[in-house]
Amino acid sequence: MKQQSYNKRFVGSHKLKPDTLMMSYGYDPKLSEGAVKPPLFMSSTFAFRNAEEGAHFFDVTSGRVKLNAEETSGLVYSRFNNPNLEVLEDRISILEEADEALVFSSGMSAITTAALAFLRPGMSMVMSKPIYGGTSSLFSTFFPEMGITVVPMTDGLSMEGITSAMNEAARHGPLGMVLIETPANPTNTLIDISLVGGQCLQHGLKTGHKPVFVVDNTFLGPIYQKPILHGADLVAYSVTKYLAGHSDLVAGAVAGRSDLMAKVLKLRGLLGTQLDPHSAWLISRSLETLSLRMQRANDSARIIAEHLRDHPMVESVNYLGFLKPGTREAEVFAKQCGKAGSTFAFTIKGGRDKAFRFLNRIQLIKLAVSLGGTESLICHPASTTHSGIKAEERAALGITEGTIRLSIGVEDPGDLLADIDQAMHDA
Fold first, then answer.
1. How large is the angle between the packed helices 193-207 and 159-170, nearest 10 degrees?
2. Does residue 154 contact residue 127 with C-beta atoms inside 8 Å?
3. What does the pLDDT look like over 278-288, one tens digit per residue?
4. What is the per-residue pLDDT for 67?
5. Taking the model in full, what pTM does it have?
6. Is the previous residue joined to 183 through a cis bond, with omega within 30 degrees of 0?
7. Average pLDDT score, the chain
């Protein structure tokens, strides 16, 4: 059982910033032949020094024995823990200002494992809309088949909208979870995290059972939004996006309070939804440049959004930097968001026909789903990421046949503008 002497967050009395800790936290070169960077541990299992140690490690891993403050969990088997996973999880927890973090084989496996850890047949949950299409499909189809009622919340800015959804869910069974995505995919719709968190607390006081409050923070990431500081119990990610940031792997994460994370960890071990060591190793490397990549993409996104706003073929632009001062949305943005981010949607005039003609003329920006990579990506949500949602529901949520989602990467913004303009001209 190794000591955490290398997990330093201070130099003297000076508290180290997350950007600095991404280079070193959670890894001791002395344990790996002096290697400056963590090696890749491609091992399914780990040898014990003696039988007593093996017994103790399994007791800890199973939750039968709690660690003291000076210990970390000993290595057992890569379905439970692995050095590369542990380094990555430590660093994500720092970025989120969470007690603990866990990484998963995908964003969907992360959010599914977290939900299954707390929801049972006969219970209910609230899910914000709009939300990522995969999440929407999972909770709208699979969970009702398990006897769990899912109630949508379309207004996450008012007390009335939030409490109405929670009360409606509670009529169908104990309210076990409130799941929101803010900003929402693809419309950038905002939800007041602290307001929802407060209502979860109030519900718990009234009923004796507080729902677990989960925030999908994929769109802004831990650089520009920290939901736990605003009252979230757990934060979920598609790590595939900004945290990994190079469109070369699939991963997910959940971070939050230790007592809740213990339940998620136990279920992850049972289900086998953990991340593989190689992907964890790659993501740890990506975290070293996370803030740099997001800053560059954020700056370029503003340039692109401003250009699109003034384009005669564009009907509207759902960019957080364009929120009108004095509005409820602007108030929430100023309270919980650091910057506008680099993924947004815009609506082209002429519906699907014009949208497809524009997309088919794009030359530099990649026509592909996903977001948050170093390369810019563009897609048509109604026919791809949100195609599993009924057309009338998509329209009500602001996802039309002319809606196009754009994720800005780290390319030269002038080059991106040239590509957009030539495609618009020919469309």
1. 40
2. no
3. 999 999 999 99
4. 76
5. 0.93
6. yes
7. 94
The string of pLDDT tens digits covering residues 36-77 is: 889 999 999 999 999 998 998 888 887 788 877 666 678 888
Rg (CA), the chain: 22
CA dihedral 105, 111, 115, 117 (to 10 degrees): 40
Q: What phi and psi, each to the nearest 5 degrees, are found at residue 185? A: -90, 125
Length reported for the chain: 427
Is residue 114 within 8 Å of 232, Cβ to Cβ? no
Planar angle of CA 223, 299, 369, nearest 5 degrees: 75
- Residue 276 confidence class, pLDDT cut points 50, 70, 90: very high
The tokens describing 388, both together, are: 């599993």
Cβ atoms < 10 Å from Cβ of 297 = 25
Q: Are 340 and 319 in contact (CB under 8 A)?
A: yes
Helix (H) or strand (E) run with residue 153 in it: strand 149-153
Where b means 16+ CB within 10 Å and e means fewer, 111-123 reads bbbbbbbbbeeeb
- Structural domains for the chain: 1-102+264-288 (no CATH), 107-239 (3.40.640.10), 290-426 (3.90.1150.10)
- Is the peptide bond between 130 and the residue preceding it cis, with omega within 30 degrees of 0? yes
